[in-house]
Amino acid sequence: MTSFSGEIRINAPKEKVWEVIADLGGIQAYHPGVRKSYYTSEQREGVGASRHCDLKPFGSLDERIVSWQDGDSYVIDIYNGEKVPPFKTATGYVSVEQDGTQTIARFAFQYELKLGPLGWLMDRIMVRSRLKSVVPAALRGLKRYVENGESEARRREPQEQAQMV
Question: Which fold has domain 2-158?
């Protein structure tokens, strides 16, 4: 099993950070690797809430909450993907902790690939190197969004317009 984790200090109260990360359908606002996301369940929070994420530059994931501690943490299971590594299991962990006037946000991601020894080799050769930047990039995006209101979608607009010309 391969795992990555990280944490970041955000100059905002825990409740404000939780409000952002608890909005599962809004992850594209702060995650630079998510082009578009939306709820796939009527339930918006708690165990069973689910979302679909279109990834940048391509691919997609379907995820659902499997553990929820309101205001503190959740665990999300990636149960379906298109044009992504062949995950046997993939799980994300998200938590927030108040520390004085700041909040410590922690993200972790662990996965195992299908295909037995071939999956293990794929992970060592190419998958791991591509995924190791996902957690730190998401945390930096969360910090920018919570502290400055700087959305990843707005950061991408000039790049996408330049590519269209």
Answer: Alpha-D-Glucose-1,6-Bisphosphate; Chain A, domain 4 (3.30.530)
Stated pTM of the model:
0.88
Buried b (16+ CB within 10 A) or exposed e, 31-49: bbbbbebeeeeeeeeeeeb
**Hey, where are the domains in the chain?**
2-158
Query: What per-residue confidence (pLDDT) applies to 130?
Result: 87
Q: Among 141, 81, 136, 137, which residue's Cα sits nearest to residue 111?
A: 81
Low-confidence residues of the chain: pLDDT under 50: 158-159, 161-165
How far apart CA 127 and CA 148 sit, in angstroms, is 32
Residue 116: φ, ψ to 5°: 55, -130
pLDDT tens digit sequence for 139-153: 999 999 999 998 886
Strands across the sheet with 60-69, in order? 2-10, 102-113, 87-99, 73-82, 60-69, 50-55, 34-39
Which of 80, 90, 81 minimizes the C-alpha distance to 4? Answer: 90
